[in-house]
Design goal:
It is a single chain. The chain is built from four helices and seven strands, in the order βααβββαβαββ. α1 packs across α2.
C-alpha cells in the first residue's frame, strides 16, 4: 500500500538516489537535499510503499515575493511506478497542503518535452505563464506554469505556442 507522508531524515539517502534516477544531471546534490530537509522538511512529501520511496514532491512558499506564492520545485516518480497515479496523488496532496496554509498561487517550470508532466499539470489547473529558453542554462528550456489555487479548474489550456522557438 502506498502511503503519502513527510520525508524523514533516514529517507535522505534513498531520496537522493530517487532524485538522481528521475532527474539525472539536474538532480539535487545530496548536500542540497539535506539543506532543503533542514529548512523545509514539512514541504517534502514522499510516496512510500512499505519502506520503498516511489516518488516525491517539493513545493515551498516563496520568500522573495508575496507570501501567498509558492514554487513547485520537484515532482518525480520512479520510472517503474509511473502511470499508477502516484504523481497525481503527490501533486494533489501537495497543492492541498499549500492551499490550507494560505497559499493562493503556485508557479513551476517544466520541460516541454516531458509531455506526461505537462498534461498532469494542466489537468491540475495550471496555466501557461511563459517560456524560458535557458531556464536551467543552455539547452534547458522550460515552460513556466502558474496555478491560481482560488480559481475553479479549466480544461482549456494552450502550451504549444509557448514551446515554439
Amino acid at each position: 500500500m502506498v502511503t503519502l507522508r513527510s520525508v524523514r531524515l533516514e529517507d535522505l539517502p534513498a531520496l537522493g538516489t530517487l532524485d538522481r534516477n528521475i532527474f539525472g544531471d539536474l538532480a539535487y546534490p545530496y548536500f542540497v537535499l539535506r539543506q532543503i530537509f533542514d529548512v523545509h522538511q514539512e514541504e517534502i512529501l514522499v510516496a512510500d510503499d512499505h519502506g520503498v520511496l516511489l516518488g516525491y514532491s517539493l513545493a515551498v512558499p516563496s520568500t522573495g515575493s508575496p507570501s501567498d506564492l509558492a514554487h513547485y520545485l520537484a515532482l518525480g516518480v520512479r520510472a517503474e511506478d509511473r502511470g499508477r497515479g502516484v504523481g497525481r496523488s503527490l501533486a494533489e496532496e501537495t497543492l492541498s497542503g499549500l492551499r490550507s496554509r494560505g497559499v493562493r498561487s503556485v508557479r513551476l517550470a517544466v520541460d516541454a518535452a516531458n509531455t506526461v508532466a505537462v498534461k498532469l499539470y494542466l489537468s491540475l489547473g495550471f496555466t501557461p505563464a511563459g517560456y524560458e529558453p535557458q531556464y536551467y542554462g543552455e539547452g534547458q528550456p522550460r515552460i513556466v506554469l502558474d496555478l491560481n489555487l482560488l480559481a475553479p479548474r479549466s480544461a482549456n489550456h494552450r502550451v504549444s505556442e509557448l514551446a515554439r522557438e
